[in-house]
Design goal:
Elements (H helix, E strand, L loop, with lengths): L1 H34 L6 E5 L3 H7 L4 H21 L4 E5 L10 H19 L2 H5 L2 E6 L7 H14 L5 E6 L4 H17 L10 H6 L11 E4 L18 E4 L9 H13 L7
Parallel strand pairs: 1-2, 1-5, 2-4, 3-4, 5-6
Helix pairs in contact: 1-9, 2-3, 3-4, 4-6
Length: about 270
């Protein structure tokens, strides 16, 4: 029994030492990121890997989605700490709407719960975070739209930070809506052909009042952008990580931002 106890003590000390070292590395990264002159003003994340995380742990799919929701709440804390003023997440694509009905029902319930939690969260009101949802709302159930209205109305007057959730979103659909709006205004004589430029298109997108993303992170090891902010990402820096979204850590976020800070953005020059 003494041998087992001693071994346990050694393992315990080793684990605690690992935690201390890990925290020290994270604190160092945080200081370096915050002190660097290059700031991320708009961060976007493709939150990928909830299902594969669950399957890798022999868990039900809905558990992976629940853990993904919890991770988003945690990441929002880190974003506020880093004073990133625009934070956009890809939660549900238009293509995702073809998934099994029981999985979608579980996701919709999580969105309702999450939006209400966010709208009532003290952090949101203390930091004056405006919450907005973009996408094809008409494709979402009435209950989800009611939760969207609740969150948006409770934060409509805030302007320090903007937290955007993309639900039933597809960038091609977004661009089509902008094109139709421009075509209609041109047809009625309210917009001349010479007035149609990049700025005119940008302001008609769902993100029209936001700057383009500086950095887009995608989790889970996939290296594609999957119909996400195609127009807006013309000169965005991309960062891909192998970790599934529920396992995404503060250290991984700081590494992504540090990688962004080390790059020289040329904007096509």
């Amino acid at each position: 029994m003494n041998g087992v106890g001693n071994g346990g003590d050694v393992i315990g000390i080793s684990n605690r030492l690992g935690d201390v070292l890990g925290n020290a590395v994270e604190a160092k990264l945080l200081r370096e990121v915050k002190q660097h002159p290059a700031k991320v003003n708009h961060l976007a994340i493709i939150m990928d890997g909830n299902r594969r995380f669950a399957w890798s742990k022999a868990l039900e799919t809905n558990i992976g989605h629940k853990m993904g929701k919890m991770k988003l709440e945690q990441v929002l804390d880190w974003v506020l700490e880093l004073e990133i003023h625009y934070f956009t997440v890809y939660a549900l694509s238009t293509e995702n709407l073809s998934r099994a009905e029981d999985e979608l029902d579980g996701l919709f319930n999580l969105y309702i719960e999450g939006l209400k939690d966010i709208a009532n969260d003290e952090r949101i009101h203390e930091n004056r975070v405006r919450v907005q949802i973009i996408g094809r709302r008409e494709l979402l159930p009435k209950s989800v739209n009611e939760a969207i209205d609740y969150a948006e109305n409770k934060t409509a007057d805030y302007d320090n930070f903007t937290f955007t959730v993309c639900l039933a979103y597809g960038s091609r659909e977004e661009m089509l809506d902008a094109i139709k709006s421009i075509a209609d205004d041109h047809r009625t004589g309210n917009l001349s052909l010479d007035s149609i430029d990049e700025e005119e298109v940008s302001k008609r997108l769902y993100t029209g009042k936001m700057p383009d993303p500086d950095l887009v992170i995608r989790t889970s090891g996939e290296e594609r952008i999957s119909n996400f902010l195609l127009w807006q990402m013309a000169y965005t820096e991309l960062y891909f990580t192998d970790v599934f979204w529920p396992s995404f850590s503060k250290k991984e976020l700081l590494k992504a931002i540090q990688t962004y800070q080390a790059r020289k953005r040329r904007f096509g020059e």
